Each structure stands twice: as structure tokens, then as C-alpha cells.
Amino acid sequence: MKGRIIGRGGRNIRAIENATGVDIVVDDTPEAIVISSFDPVRREVARLALEKLIADGRIHPARIEKVVHETREEVEHMIREFGEQAAYQAGVRGLHPDLVRLLGQLKFRTSYGQNQWHHAIEAAHIAGLLAAELGANVDLAKKGALLHDIGKAVSHEVEGPHALIGAEIARRCGMHEIVVNAIASHHHEEEQRSVEAVIVEVADAISGARPGARRESLESYIKRITALEEIARGFEGVEEVYAIQAGREVRIIVKPDEVDDLAAIELSRSIARKIEEGLEYPGQIKVTVIRETRAVDYAK
Predict the structure, then answer these.
(1) Closest CA relative to residue 56, chosen from 5, 124, 116, 125
(2) How does pLDDT run across 40-77, given as a tens digit for each residue?
(3) Same-domain pairing of 52 and 135
């Protein structure tokens, strides 16, 4: 089958690559070929088209072009459906068709292993609950949270941070200025100008940082945990450092005779800033400094 996918003189594999805009890697791995592309939608089109070609058995350039064209239309329809489904599940109405399409594209995008389509819906639900509790505008908070990562759908095509790209798209599509600001400021590229913007940032962090939401390789996980502990150990007066909750929290035990209560507060801030500057991580990390004074005496 791999020989048929490659074709005589490589004509079939070239036809697939030209039609889909992806790279096809055929190596010695049994019963597997690799589809490589920076664009997740192109990868999905290529994957579905290859599955159809393999199932059908007729693989030649003319057939490849026809199947890829049909698959591209099919994926476009799927994207629209996924976008509408996301808006429906989040309880958000009145979105511009372009925003609905970008939401659908997030179905094929992941971040640290977390599917961005599921993340957007989850963040919208969390934002709605928080806004209701705090007496903020539930509709605007939900919209901001649902759309906060739409810039990721096009960030491989446009230069700049995904938050600012997404905000500009939302502005062009006529979204409320509070929603635009919430999208732009959820990673602090812009200043937050409403309570809804803060709620969107919190909802994003909760969805990304909850246990099991995101995954990383064991090697990179161990490196991150080690780096986290080393940063905290680099400060004066630190006695012990423990990274806990899969690196979501770092607990620092200080020497009580060297660090007083005010210095402990300042130390927690300093360590948090150093972690922000020196580490890349999903979600947020809680820094807890513990200063324990023990008084010991003996009854004889």
C-alpha cells in the first residue's frame, strides 16, 4: 500500500502533496505514514483524503485531485458545524459567521495536548458561572471566554500574539468592545478594562490548569519541575523547596532566623516574578512561602 501511495516515480505522493499542501513522510514504520504541516486544517484534509484513497484502492493523480477536492468541501462543512456546535453548547448567540468558522477550526488545534475547541467551550461555561456569582455581564463574559483563543486558528498565517490577532478579528466582526478587550488582555498584552476581562483570564487559567487538561512528555515535565525547584533554591534564606501538584504549586520553607514575616511575603513575590521570566508553562503556578518558628523546652 505504501508503494501505491508513492506511485511510479513518486507521482502519486507528489500529487497528494501538491493538492493538499502538506508533506507526506513514508518511512520504515509498519502500517503508518506521517502527515506534516503547520496548518491543522490541511492536515485533516490530507488525513481524510488518504483514508478514502486507501479504502477505495484506486490511487492515481486524477483520482487524488477529485478526492482531495471533495474532502476539502467536507472539512469546510465540518468546520461550520463544529463552530455552530461550540456556540450552542456555550449558550452564546449572534456570532458573526467568520467567528463561527474560526471557532470550528479550533477543533483541529491543540495546546499542550488540550483540544482548543473543548477548551473554549469549557472556559465559556466557567466564565458564565463566575460572572453570575460576581454580578458581572454573563453574556459578555461567555463571549469573551468562548472567543479568547480564536487568534490561534490563524496565528500560523499572521504575525503577532494570538490574543491581539483574535481581538482584531473580533473587532472587525463587530463584537462589543468589552469582549474585544477581554480577548486582547487574557495574556496581558493589553490592560484589562472590565471585570469581564479578568473573568475571561481566570476561566482560561482554570480550564488550562485543571488536572488532566494538558499533557507533556515525561522528560520535559521532569525538566520543568527541576527548573522550578532550582529557581526557588537560588534565593537567600531558603531551606527546602518542594514542587507539588504536578508543578502547579511550589512550597518554599525558609530559615526563620534569616527571613522574617515581611521578607517571606516579599520572597513569594520575587520567586513568582522569577518563575514568570525564566519558565514556560501552561496555566499558573502558586508560590507558597512557609516560615515556621518552633519553640522547644524540656520538663525535667
Answers:
(1) 5
(2) 899 999 999 999 999 988 888 899 999 999 999 999 99
(3) no
Q: Sheet holding 238-244: strands in order across?
A: 238-244, 249-254, 286-291
Quote the pLDDT of residue 42.
92
245 pLDDT exceeds 80?
Answer: no
How much is the average pLDDT of 20-47? 89
Q: Rounded to an integer, what distance in angstroms lies between the CA atom of residue 37 and that of residue 95?
A: 29
- Domain containing 127 equals 91-209
pLDDT tens per residue, range 91-132: 999 999 999 999 999 999 988 778 999 999 999 999 999 999
- Report residue 296: phi and psi, to 5°: -120, 130
What CATH number is associated with residue 68? 3.30.1370.10
Q: At residue 2, does pLDDT exceed 80?
A: yes
Q: Do 107 and 184 have their domain in common?
A: yes
Are 189 and 256 in a shared domain?
no
Amino acid letter, 95: L
Return the axis-axis angle of helices 61-90 and 97-105, rounded to nearest 10°.
110
Residue 157 resides in a domain: yes
Domain total of the chain: 3
Helices 138-147, 61-90: crossing angle, 10 deg rounding: 160
CA 146 from chain center: how many Å? 13
Among positive and negative, which fits the CA dihedral 237, 242, 247, 251? negative
